[in-house]
Give the backbone structure.
Amino acid sequence: MTKYGYSHKMSGDIVEHFTDLLGLKTNNSRIGFVLYWLFRSSLSNTWLRLPRNESFYNDSSKTNGISYKLMIEKIIDPLTDLGYLETIPGNHFSEIQTLIKPSVLFDQIFSTSDFILVEDAVIHVKGYNPIVVRNPNKKPISFSTSNREFRRMLKNVNIINAKIASSSITFIQEEEGKGGTYNGSYTTNTEYPHCLSEFAANQKVSFTNSAKHLFHLYRIFNKRGGKGKEALFNLGGRFYASGQNMRKSERKNICINGERTTELDFSNLHPRMLAAKEGIEFPAKHDTYTGEKMLEIDPNRENNKELVNALLSCATPPQMMSMLHGKGFKEQAAQAYIEAVLEHNPWLSNHIGKDVGVLLQNVDAKMTEKIMLRFIKQTSSAILPVHDSYIVQEKHEELLRKIMLEVWDEQYPDVSM
């Protein structure tokens, strides 16, 4: 089972390494908390503001209980002296502060594929289990690794990750046609603690081959009751990586082994899968999320896509209404929106409010596994999944399209894509 280590979500052996390096006696979560944010800063090449005013550290809500002595005297200053941090002294709002950023020496510790960012946890890959099962509270649960299905999935995700790890994953600068740029939105959590606040969240930053760490894959399954081994892996199971949180406009600048890439997806995948389940041919040029009445209520397609998928993930009609209320819909407007969705997509009437989202994810994850393994076998090239879309070198676009259609036909032989 995945070992998340401390509450700060930094792998324990990384903390142990720096604890020994700094000559500290205590291997605790506060040290790991600081190292975690330094690692995040290292990934995005971002300067961090660090207050050096001793009175600032008297407020534990700003520092997560880290004292001035531990932060400045035992961690930051020694790491600077050892060459692990770059610093720029200065003042900010009349409080003494320093700008800090991990140096090349710090980066070198994480320069192999041994360390990755999984959700908001820094994990040491050695001994790391990329198959995660979570309970309804989204907490990882333990399970037997002798399970046959687990061993099969583990072997396959390791094959895919090995191909990514052996490849060069870089970003190009569109206007210059070379170099590497990326604006740092690879993670959904950009909130820094007060004692380590961001200096420039959207600055352009350069990447090297270490960008491959953003695409180290893991899978998350959802367990919601049920008995037996089969209950472990029948809900959810999609492939995740922190790099998936990039905007599509940023992903188009990804290069694999120095070559430009393209991204293909299954359009309207989950509604299309539900139509196929009903034996219905998905209407040509139909877009689930742009019904006339839907757009009158919300003209933003992406918002409608999010709402429709949320409706499919709700377990009961009251939960649907509660979800829409949470999105700002009044009672009458919420009901009108549901009616607009079903008028435009009548086959969804048997599925919304039935908690089918994780079931659909389970099926599309199995399709994704087939697509990636088949693509690697035929090309010996890396493939980067973003849930229901796939990034490959431009020269492999038509082959990828062919494989995607093959896998769809195998899953739904009676309904065309």
The longest strand covers residues 85-92. Residues 233 and 375 are 24 Å apart (CA to CA). The chain is about 40% helix and 15% strand. Residues 1-8, 174-192, 198-210 have pLDDT under 50 and may be disordered.
